[in-house]
Amino acid sequence: MKKFALAGNPNCGKTTLFNLLTGSTAYVGNWPGVTVDKREGTYKKLGEPVKIVDLPGIYSLSPYTPEEVISRNFILDEKPDCVINVVDATNLERNLYLTTQLLEIDVPVVIALNMIDAVEKAGDKIDAHTLEKKLGVPVVTVSALKNTGVAELMKRGWEAAKNTRKGVTVLKDTPLAHLVNDVKIALEGKGVDNPLFHAVKLVEKDEIEVKDHADAEKMVDDFKQTFKDDTFGGDFEALVADGRYKYISQNFSVVYTRKGEKNVLSRSDKADRVLTHRIWSIPIFLLILFAIFHVTFSENFLFLGGLFPEDWDPCAGTAFEGVLFGGGIFSPGVMIFNTWNDVILANLFGWIGKGLEATGMAAWAFGLLNDGILGGLSAVLSFLPQILILFLFFSILEDSGYMARVAFILDRIFRKFGLSGRAFMPMIMGFGCSVPAMVNTRTLADDNERTATIRVIPFFSCGAKLPILTAIAGAIALSSGLSSPDLITYSMYLLGIVVAIASVLLMRNTTMKGDIPPFIMELPAYHAPRFSSLMIHLWDKLKHFVKKAFTIILASVIVIWFLSNFTWNWTMIDGEEHMNQSILASLGQFVQPLFTPLGFGSQLNSYGWVFAVAAVTGLLAKEDVIGTFGTLAAVFVGTVIDTEADGGLAAVQAMIGGTGITIPALIAFIAFNMLTIPCFAAVATAKAELPSKKAFRWTLLFWIVTSYLVSAAIYIIGSWWWTSFIFAAALAAAAAGIVLYNRNKRLKSQKV
User: Which CATH architecture has domain 177-257?
Assistant: First the structure.
């Protein structure tokens, strides 16, 4: 099977092209020894299947980043049959820099001039035929977004792969041409593959090449002693870069024809005047985020609830009663959530439950299957629609090119907290799921920045924590007389963001000091996302969620059911109301005192262990908390409560009534589950992504300590308001101490 590699700058449309070529055959892993995505798939529309390898987005083949080293080593060592160089046609001059390096390698190259539709839409023209003649390799105009020219691209790549190709350099008219040729001849004599590429890199004083070819490097040093450039002196790397850019500039002007004046702004540029405005960009982004959450979660869409009677529901008496309306119009996200649960899951699991009951199986078997497995899965799967909707909106923002702008906008703010704008994307992904968010930190080159970002990602409440928030917030609203639980829900989201910011500030000013790496990002032109790409993104997220639901969560649900229905004598308890005699109850009573400073410990009655157990099961998977509520509420109402219909609200109310837990303690419970160790899947991901085992152990401790201290502060301040002054004084003293320590240390280093 032939092997094609896709190489190109970040945001050149390479991933869109990869998804288009490979479709459902694509899979993601890691490159050997490094935590950088390795994407592979198969193209099946040629004479035989072709393996497609999507290399990381890079600006050059110099060893400045892990991505550049990976791409370089793959092309040199794996020797793909063809390299498809994806070039952003709207930024031709900048993208061709990488092209000039690829041309120096002895490998067939085909240029995919992508986003040609955007060029034509602007009224500009690119003479691909002339560019092909100048570069000496096939050039094909394509639009991965609109699926035009792709078949021709792969056909030209297939033809190119049949022949060998010798590398050529654009440096032939530079003062270093003679030196490059001499070094190349010397490397050829030693039997080195791709001698031209290695020769140019030796002239640049590439650190990898210097180690591998010491003799040839001496030739460069000898030449350097006799050479002096008026502009760059003896900086050969600058001379090589200058030679490449001069070649590109000369040939770019010939093949690229602009309509009208050069200074006419494109539509993307005009949009950026508003969307990336120094003042208005942040409020616009926050407004967009609010709109996303409003459309996904609001039970009062567009705040129209006051226009309708409280009992208004045009669908009353139908299968959609309470699904679309509830004294007002529900948001699209809530409508889909209600339809999925009240119409689809309710009927499906209801039929399965009746079928199980009709078999006349033993009580323990029926309890395990119906109350344990089915009840747990229904609680987990009930929130699948809203999670997917949230991912859909974020995918649209990313594929349209807007998210790249947001990262650029936030860079100047993030730097004040010790992070670059690149950290934004993993953090915002944390609202969906911590696992892909942590994986996305691979784009961060600095280990300290990456470690700090991974540690705070769980503080951005993922979709799995949403059931906890909505159930407890709803119960608090009913207990306190609030008209809507939205205030509590949004406050908890805000709390997570505030704790994340404070944590980063603390880490970057104490244990993780260091310079903030520069943030360079190519801003693609705005475009409408491709439907197939969005579906591929959603399918990836769905696969992850379902895999988690039917592995970790299913296993934990079975364990919880067993522990809550059996005693230490291995006998099944007689009725759920006697669950206080179960193994789970005794374990819960054992750990209950640990949560006393948080408000749901020893101060509750003998049944207060239910909250301690729910907090512990949340360490397995946050989705387990709601399922646990439904099971443990049986202690107070005598039967397992179905959490599917109301998202666990009735179960929480029963537990509040049975334990007498206070509102500050409930809010502390929410905060603890939001900030503590995330689910096992996220923990495993963190272990894989963090730079060392030591960093992983400290991260676990960080999550535990942070969640415990913040939750304790919430409970104590909520119960005794005057303690807020004590906490404020302690925080001020700690901040002042850190500032003074760093100042004194800086002054000492300056004196030395």
Answer: Orthogonal Bundle (1.10)
**Residue 555 to residues 27, 365, 373, 568, 634: CA-CA distances in angstroms?**
26, 16, 9, 20, 21
Predicted structure pTM score: 0.61
Q: Is-contact 703 676, C-beta < 8 A?
A: yes
The CA-CA-CA angle for residues 436, 439, 444, to 5°, reads 130
List beta partners, residue 3: 51
Exposed/middle/buried for residue 420 (C-beta within 10 Å: 0-12, 13-18, 19+): buried
Report the alpha-carbon distance of residue 600 to residue 612 in Å, rounded: 7
Q: Is there a contact between 80 and 4 (Cβ–Cβ < 8 Å)?
A: yes
The reported pLDDT for the residue numbered 35 is 46
Contact assessment for residue 446 and residue 514, using Cβ atoms and an 8 Å cutoff: yes
Which DSSP state fits 55?
Answer: P
What integer pLDDT is reported at residue 61 of this predicted model?
86
Q: How confident is the model at residue 380 (pLDDT cuts 50, 70, 90)?
A: low
Please report, as a single letter, which amino acid is at residue 138: P
pLDDT band at 477 (very low <50, low <70, confident <90, very high): confident
Q: Are strands 109-114 and 139-141 parallel, antiparallel or unpaired?
A: parallel
Q: What does the radius of gyration of the chain's CA atoms come to, in whole angstroms?
A: 30
Q: How many whole angstroms separate alpha carbon 498 and alpha carbon 702? A: 16
Q: Contact 198/209 with Cβ under 8 angstroms?
A: yes
Greater confidence (407 vs 677) lies with 677
Alpha-carbon distance 313 to 315, whole Å? 5
Which position has the token pair 């002339």? 130
Q: Where are the beta strands (DSSP E) in 434-478?
A: none
Q: 19-33, 183-197, 420-434, 536-550: which has the highest mean pLDDT?
A: 183-197
List, edge to edge, every strand of the sheet that includes 37-43.
Answer: 27-30, 37-43, 50-54, 2-8, 82-88, 109-114, 139-141
Please give the helix or strand (H or E) that residue 486 lies within, else none.
helix 486-508
Q: Cβ distance 613 to 587 under 8 Å? A: yes
C-beta separation of 85 from 142 below 8 A: no
- What's residue 339's pLDDT? 87
Q: DSSP class of residue 325? A: B
Give CA torsion, residues 633, 637, 642, 644, to 10 deg.
-60
Is 292 within 8 Å of 395 (Cβ atoms)? no
Structure tokens, 312: 């208004």
3-state SS track over 269-305? HHHHHHHCCCCCHHHHHHHHHHHHHHHHHCCCHHHCH
Instruction: Please answer whether residues 98 and 3 qualify as being in contact, where contact means their C-beta atoms are separated by less than 8 angstroms.
Output: no
> Taking the CB of residue 93, how many other CB atoms lie within 10 A of it?
13
If pLDDT is split at 50, 70 and 90, which confidence band does 551 have?
low
Contact status, residue 13 vs residue 117, Cβ threshold 8 Å: no
Token pair 């009930």 is found at: 382
The mean of the pLDDT values for the chain is: 81
At 635, the amino acid letter reads: V
Length of the chain: 752
Which band of pLDDT confidence, cut at 50, 70 and 90, is reported for residue 231? low
Query: If 0-12 CB within 10 Å is exposed, 13-18 middle and 19+ buried, where does residue 91 land?
Result: middle
Q: Which of 236, 226, 234, 178 is nearest to 204 (CA)?
A: 236
Indicate the range of 188-202, 238-252, 377-391 predicted with least confidence.
Answer: 377-391
Task: State the pLDDT confidence band at 160, using cuts at 50, 70 and 90.
Answer: very high
CATH number of 2-161: 3.40.50.300
Instruction: Report the Cα–Cα distance between both ends of the chain, in Å, rounded.
Output: 62
Tokens representing residue 341 in the block: 């649960």
Residue 529: what pLDDT?
A: 79
Calpha distance 442→447 (Å, rounded): 10
In the block, residue with structure tokens 């390799």:
137
